[in-house]
Structure formats: C-alpha cells, structure tokens
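Journal club side-thread
Mid-discussion, someone asked how the predicted structure for our own chain would compare to the paper's figures. Pasting it here so we can look after the session.
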Amino acid sequence: MTAFQIVPSGASFVMKNERVINRGIMGIGMAFTPQGSLIMADWSGGYPLDEIGHIWTADDPTGQDSPSRLDTAKLLASPSSHPSHLSHPDQRIRLQTQFALVKSGDFTTLAAIAADKKAKQLARIHAIWGLGQGLRAKKTEASTLTTLLTDSDPEILTQAAKMLGDAPTDGKPLLPLLTSNVSRVRFHAAIALGKLKEPSATPKLLQLAAKEQNDPFMRHAIVTGLAGCADEAALVKDKGLCSLLALAQQRSPRVADFLGKFPDEAERAIHDDAGIPAALPALIQRHSRRGLNACLRLGTAEAAQHVIQTALKPSELQSEALDVLLVWNSPPRLDRIDGHAHTNAARDPKTLVSVVQPHLDALMALQDGELKAKAVELLMQLQLRVEPELLLQIIADESARAPLRAEALKLMAAQHAAALEFSTALDLASAKASPPELRREGLKQVFAHQPASAITEAANVLKEGDTVTKQLAFGLLATAANAKADEVLAIWLDKLAQNQVPAAIQLDLIEAAATRDALKPKLDAYTQTHTTHDELLEGGDVTTGRDIVTNHLGANCIACHTIEAKEGSQVGPNLKIIGSQKDRKYLLESLLNPIAQVAPGYGMVALTLKDGKAISAVLDKEDAKQIQLRLPDGKTQTIPRDQIATITPPISVMPPMLGILTKPQIRDVVAYLASLKSKTIKKK
C-alpha cells in the first residue's frame, strides 16, 4: 500500500513523495478512527467465505493522547455547528460543521464567512460549499456566490464557479473568469459555463481553445464549455480540434466534416463508445479498422462491398477484413474494437452471399496461407460451392500451410462428403506423413462420415500420432457409439496401470474412460491405487493456459501475481520466470494445495511468545535459531526461537484451484507457468 502527496500543477494536480506505507497484508479497506488511528481490514483466511479476517491498527504511540486528537474525537462524538470549526484541521469536523449550518438554514453566517477575506481559506471554501448546497436546494440566492467572483484569492474564484455551475442560474457573471491569469480558475469557469449553457461564452471559449487546446486538462474544460454553450453551426465554422470534440459531445453527425483534418479524432468520435450512429455511413470508405467495423455495424450491401474489396486488395487490413466478413451475419454482442455493447443493424444473410459469390475465384487465388485459410472458412460458413477438384488440389498440396489444407478438408466434408474426391482426401489426411493439423481434421471427419473405420483410425493415431492428435483421438473415442471404442480404451487403461502411457495423454485417457460405463470397474481399480494427480503434469496448452491465467475471473491470478507485465500485484510471488525456478511438480502442487509449500515472504503466521505477547505477521526468513517477520508497517523483526511458545504454519491466501478450474485447465496453467523462463542472450 502506498501513500503520496497531491500538489497543484496548472489546472490540475500531480502526485509527489510516493512511498510505501504497508507490505505483506492483503488490505481490502482502510479508515481513520475518531481517535486518529488508522485501521485496515484484511482477508487473512484467503478467498473462501470462511469468515476469517483481521482488523489491523496502525498508530504513533507518542501522539495517542495529544490535545488535538482528543479534541477531534470529542467533536466527532458531539457534533457542533459553531462557525469556527469550519477551519478545523480535520476535514471530518469541517464537513460536519458545514452540513450542520446548512441543515439549520444559517446561510447568512455562511455568506459572511465566505465573503470575509480575513477568514482562513478552508473556512471560506466550506462556507462556499454550504452556499452551493443551499443554491441547489433553492434556499439561497446566486448573488451570495456571484459577489465572490471578484475576490483576489484564485481558489475562492474556483470554488464559487464550481458551485454556480451546479445550480440553475445566469452564467454571464462567470465570463470574466475565462481571462483569469490562473489556469485553475479558467478551467472551472469553462466547465461551469458549459453546464449553464451560456451562449455568450462561445467567442471567449473559442479564443481560449486557440491558445490552450494542447493542454489536455484545459482542452477538456474548453470542450465541456463549448459542448454546452456553442451551437452546431459555430463549431463547424471554427474547424478546430476543440470544436470537433465539442460536436462529439453533442453527438452531432457534423463531426464527419472533420474527417479530412482530424481523421483519427473524428473516427473515434463517430465510432467509439456510444458514438454517433447517424454518422457511421461516413466511415464506410475509410481505410481503417474503425472503417471496417462501421461497415460491420451497418450491415448493408454497400458496406459489405467495401469490406470484400479490402479483403482482396493487398494491405495491412486484408486479414482484418476477412475477420469482419466471418462475423458479418452474427456480429459479437461486445464490439470487436471498443468492447461496448452495440445494437447492430438487422441484416439479411443472403446479402453477404450475393456480395461474396462474384469474388469466389479471387478469394481462392489468395497467395498468403493465413488469408486463404480464412477465405476457405468464409466460403464454408456461407456454403458457397467450391468444386471438389479444387479443394482436393489444396488438400494434396504439400507446400500449402497445414491449417489451410485442414480448412479445405472441412469445406469438402460440408459440400462433397459423397464424392469420390472426399475419400481420396481422407486417405491423404490419414497418412502418417500428413501434418498434424490435417491429420486431426481428417480424424474428425472419419468419425463423422466413416464410422466403420473410425475406431481403427483412432487406434492407429494412438500408436503413431503426435501428442495433440492422440488427445483428440481419446476425446473422439469417448463419444463414439461403438462398443469397439471400449476395447481400445481398455487396452490403454491396462497400459496406464503398468505406467506405459506418456504423461501428456494420461488425463485424456482417464476422462475418456470415465464416460464409458463398461470401463468403470477398470478405471475405479486404477484410481484407487493412484491418488496423485500426475496426469496434470504434462500435455497442457501454453496459449490456453496463458488465457486462463490472464482472464479467468474465478482464478483471478493477476490479482495477486505479477506475470508478464512490467508491474503488477505483489500480494503473491512474482511468476515472471517461475518456469526457470521450479519444476512442474512444484507448480502443480502450488495450484492444488497452496499451503503445502508457501513461498518465503508470502505466508502469514501467528505466534505467541513465552512472555504472552501475540504477533501476526508475514514469515520472511527462518533458520534453526531464529525467524524473521515482516510486520504490517513493512519493518522486519527477528525473534530467537527459544523465545517462541507457539507458532502456526504459514498460511497462503491463495485458494486450491481444483474446483475453480477443471483438470484440463489446471494442466494448461501448469504448461504456461512452466514456459515462463528467463531469457538468456547467446554470445556470438
């Protein structure tokens, strides 16, 4: 946990003096007590709902009985509305007094303090806030605040402008603040005028835009002001960046007029988030990702024509255009670019067919293997007929990329399963020399179209295929409506009992056998004598494991660990090179039973000393003579073992993952973690 100081910087603030104030405790909330000590809650029991936790207190013993803290505690216990407390050092007292004066309706006192240039600044600010409460509740007049707009203190001007902007009132008194020499005053005046929709502010705001649009904070304020004050015609005429952004806030289709001068900003305004649906057609001809995505949202024949032309013309957007066509008829609910839920225009599936059909030859003539694979997938999805001879030519082409050959086989299965060429294609795919991707697709199609020979083919694959293909074979055998599948699986279960099955396919065999009633006795006999989970050590997919670690909401790994990012959570050990530091058995045990071996410096212990003192902290280091603890304040404490009466084993806040994740997912995570190794530079 860190603390920092906020200091003014231009129209905003910056952080300074950032420092660590706590390590080792998974703090989930903090607050100050009336007596002035800091309290913090933590999940000492980990994620499970076991109702275990702690409340920690941090304090400076030398200040516990100080007069100021005693006075604060007394005032918090017995609230007072005395005006002098508006400048109390504790903000809680100041706010308590402000609300008490507002509740009693004493706006005369608040107005007097706000106008008193000899009063402390904090008291005047709270008085202004109180007047703002009254103004919003229509219990006081705007004049109590507008009289402050000539004050010499910039912060008083700022706070008065903020309060006036939040209540229905005349904005003209705020106009002079737009020319203040203090940027913070100009910032809040522009925002307030935008809220009040004061049209006479438009010329000054445009002048301000010409001078300060490069300052991001001032640009935000100016845009907010213009969005509320300026009409569409004035903004279009100005042609400036702030005017564009103001039109975007107004959701004006005239943003499209700025596509030539500010293409990126105008595209984002039209496309992103809520966007400007009425201006989407203006993006159809844009050669950009947002232009393609606008076509997808619109779903018209004209938009589809633009996407297919982009897909066929060599550029960096070819692959993206094909991806758009692949989801054209069923756009994702969450947008592909901005992640928001958009309502896409209704579309007729026949539209895309009519657009793509004339370009069938051009799609099949694409030279890049990845692009051609997507084109074949598109043709299969649209059920556009491709002659079996052409598909067989692709499948038989040993120079073509394996994924493309597999997609061509899939398309042939969908269109020409009864053709002689299809049987030839399956023979090619089933050949021992065929690439794994093609062989896997061939195995799927054999199970779908030639069930009589499927079991034999699966048995052959299990003898000579690669690991992933063997895993697929077990999965297909699990669902086969053929008793011979039980025979093949039974043979492999016998091998498993004799430790003759490679670790990478053990889980797939066990899960396939578990679906077959005839194999239950044999499987039960095995599981009764094998209680470990060695079947999860090998055979996982690194890419899938990475996705689980990064995105699985239940596992929530990145909440506690730093993995691939430069920075991250320090609650748990850093895993960036864990594959170089630990073997797979250690990684698996850490997932299944996190408390078995708690990494040094990350386990909570509770100990009782022989003098009766109790301590809870993180076990940092230990040896035969002493232990070193890391206390909640980040300091370390070394305690000789002969002073310890009792000590608990280190507790990890990480829950067991089996149950949160499935066994195949655990296996994938092990594979990913094992791949995280230090990068070494080879010497030339």
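Post-session note: The chain has 31 helices and ten strands.
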